[in-house]
Amino acid sequence: MITEQEAINLLEKHSSSPKSFQYVLAHVQAVQRVAVRIAAECKGVDMEVIAIGSLLHDIGRFAELKGKERVRHGIIGGQILREEGVDEAIARIAERHIGVGIRKKDIIEQDLPLPHQDFVPETREEKIIAHADNLIFGHEEKPFEAVVERFRRELGEQYVLRAKKLQKEIEEMRCGN
What we know:
The protein is mainly alpha-helical. The protein contains nine helices and two strands; from the N terminus they run H-H-H-H-H-H-H-E-E-H-H. A hairpin with a 2-residue loop joins strand 1 and strand 2 (140-141). Helix 2 (18-40) runs antiparallel to helix 3, helix 3 packs across helix 5 (88-96) and helix 7 crosses helix 9 (157-174). The chain is globular and about 40 Å long.
């Protein structure tokens, strides 16, 4: 596993500009703070994967994508991390962190520019980081109600239900279930 400094160096290496690096770094560090806080309350979570995965989950954001193409930043991040020799667990976090995950069904129905497969968080670490990322708006943490409102406005009620399901799974992890 790489160190936090090596993860930050990777972000900088793949950044498109000093300004974009600073913006993404502030965001991922905020996600890391929330993810580490949540994970510390859960049993059976790899804290090293949480720390590094949260820092690298958005490495694909440096690809200058527009419109619907932005959804590709997760798989681009996974590709970058594999090419850099980073742990597969970290690459999967990058691929699966977007929103509440993107299902094959969503890709087909919305004609998203992604391979026809599921990109849904499966492990505890993937779920915690996806949830923490949803709570961060830019680099500020917002209450879960703000996530619900954003998903309702931007994605629809189906995604609100999926976000609530993910939050419930996180709460159950916190209770030791």
